[in-house]
Amino acid sequence: MAVSLGQISKELFAQKTRLFLTILAITWGTLSIAMMLSIGQGLRVTFAKAVANTGQNLLIVQQGKTAKLFRGSHKNKAVSFNKQDLKTVSTLPAVRYVSPQYSWEVKVTYDTKTNYQPILAVSADYNKIHSIDIQVPGRFISPIDEQQYSRVVVLGNKVLTNLKLKITDPVGKTIFMSGIPFKIIGIMQEKSQISAGRTTPDANTIWMPSATYEMIKNPTSIPSIALMYKDNANLEALENQIQRTIAFNHSLDPDDDSIVEFKESAKQQNTIDTFFFGMQIFLGIIGSLTLAVAGIGIANVMYASVKRSTRIIGIRMAIGAKTYHIVMHYVLEAVIATAIGGVFGLLLSGGLIYIINFIPMKGPLFDTIGKPHPILSWSVIASVVIILGLVGFLAGLFPALKASRIDPSEALSYE
Amino acid sequence: MNKLIELNNIYKTYHTGKIAFEALKNIDLIIEAGEYAAILGPSGSGKSTLMHILGCLSTPTAGSYLLDNKEVSKFSRNELAKVRNQKIGFVFQSFNLVPQLNIVDNVSLPLVYRSIGLIQRTKRAKEILAQLGLDTHFAHKPGELSGGQQQRAAIARALVTEPDIILADEPTGNLDTQSGAEVIKLFETLSASGKTIIIITHDHSVAERARRIIKIRDGKIE
Question: Which of A22, A191, A315, A328 counts the most CB atoms within 10 A of its CB?
Fold first, then answer.
């Protein structure tokens, strides 16, 4: 090797105050950038998970209004989905599962406790569309429930809490909705979620069979249809097919794209992912600036060190050090100090994140999306290491270049 | 005898703002291989400037410098560094050891710049230090040694690369009489072994121990 790492380390560690200050600056900078990136990563992962929990390949089809005149039908005519629409949409090749969505609020009573809760009447496939898992013991609505118009309900995991009820073994118990008894058949497992097409999180929702609802209420239309499309489906083509199918069923213009409205989980997922990726970059930039300030601090310390070491640089040159020996010496000093500070900073960040994970986070936002804990992932560590390496290298390079340009004759006379 | 050093019409001018100062004027000097020469002059005579040019630490403003028949006055910085590492060993008045390193590391430092491995260079440094009576001080840093011991360590560093020339700038200037005498004795031993020794001094008693005295005054050889 052109320089002795051992000798450089000995010289570096012999100047304890300088080394301590340098390491402190880098530790602080590393802590800043690692925490910023980890917070960004945590938010991104939490929101991505929340969106994914809403349902993968989820498409909500909502009723729209006509925008074009077509075969006698006028503009702004409201489109009402019917059973035929549901059936024809379910037969499209790209569609995997389909469910109607009837939503409203209902007065729920258990014993003497009463509260208003959002309710959703859906088909037996809805749990697959919306990634709803049920606690054991218990189950989701079955096709038999639909065939028999069963008066059964599945509760979101927060419904009982919302009703201020403490029921042990709720499955099998009966609640009353608008005075009609319904048997609880399942409780949803806890999950974070951002709803696509709905504002109520699943945790606060009650589900009942759509067939039972239709039998009791005899609704005139289906407000919206939730469906899960196949992994290989072309979403744009599917939306076009749905629009044309609905148009055909209602004798409307198949090219009128305002007769249906779509809400896609994939687009929402992409939008949220892009937003939080941008936020992570923004936080990373702030952290990098902190680290850059630390880097300038190191460069200053290194400049001062070069100034103080002028005579020693002269000695090194007198005994044969070439330009690159001097450059490498000071760059390596800065890189070693940066590496030590970086390790301390990353360890501190890991410790801090470990502590933060114990801090309870409560509130409607956290109930909806889950707890956005910072994540010190390998990608965050890799980013920190790359930025640290760059900062350390540059912080050492400029003072090192200055050192290498010193005239040996003048350096030896330096007092 | 071979001509090891040949200076022809060497000038060295320093500029301070608009003021030019001629530190060396029209220097012609030949030093044969194996010579033991002293460059003697008072303070400000230009002897240190001459030593820096002889040691390739500085290049002349004008003139020709042949070292071992090679014109070195036009060498690049890195070429000059290579010459210093391979052909010249320096001994300074203030020892110029690296204070943070122990004397083994100090002595082996020139070998680092020759890319010699740790084991080999440490072995070589210890051998030289032992020859100079410093075998019980390997782990000591310069600050933990006496002036005489430091100068012996500096001489060990100058010898570790087995250079053709030892250039010593006031080597006894910071030593007591006894240590100074020991260092001069060491130079005489090295000279007897065939090394070319050039001592720069203002001390007549040191210069008189050399086999040749070159007097310099006001930047000119007398």
Answer: A22
DSSP A108-172: EEETTEEEEEEEEEE-TTHHHHTT--BPSS-----HHHHHTT--EEEE-TTHHHHTT---SS-TT
pLDDT at B53 over 90: yes
Lowest mean per-residue pLDDT among A79-83, A168-172, A236-240, B198-202: A168-172
CATH of the domain at B188: 3.40.50.300
B142 interfacial to chain A (CB closer than 8 Å): no
Specify if B8 maps to a domain.
Answer: no
Task: Report the domain count for chain B.
Answer: 1
A312 close contact with B: CB closer than 8 A: yes
Whether residue B78 and residue A321 make contact (CB cut-off 8 A), yes or no, is no
**Is A407 in contact with B85 (Cβ distance < 8 A)?**
no
Give the SS3 label for residue B90: strand
Residue B176 counted as domain residue: yes
CB contact under 8 A, A319 and B92: no
Asked if A1 is an interface residue toward chain B (Cβ–Cβ < 8 A), one would say yes
Q: Residue B12 falls within a domain, yes or no?
A: no
Mean pLDDT of A86-110: 91
| Percentage with pLDDT > 70 across chain A | 93
Q: For chain B, report the end-to-end CA distance as a whole number of angstroms.
A: 23
Task: Chain A: give the shortest CA distance to residue B59, in Å.
Answer: 9
Nearest Cα residue in chain A from B57: A409
pTM above 0.80, yes or no: no
Residue from the list B86, B90, B105 with its beta carbon closest to the beta carbon of A318: B90
Question: Could you give the angle at the alpha carbon of B4 between the alpha carbons of A413 and B7, nearest 5°?
Answer: 60
Q: Which residues of A touch B55 (CB under 8 A)?
A: 318
Enclosing domain of residue B135? 35-62+74-221
Q: Determine the residue among B24, B92, B98 to mutate to test chain A binding: the one whose Cβ has the most chain A Cβ atoms within 10 Å.
A: B98
What per-residue confidence (pLDDT) applies to A196?
A: 47
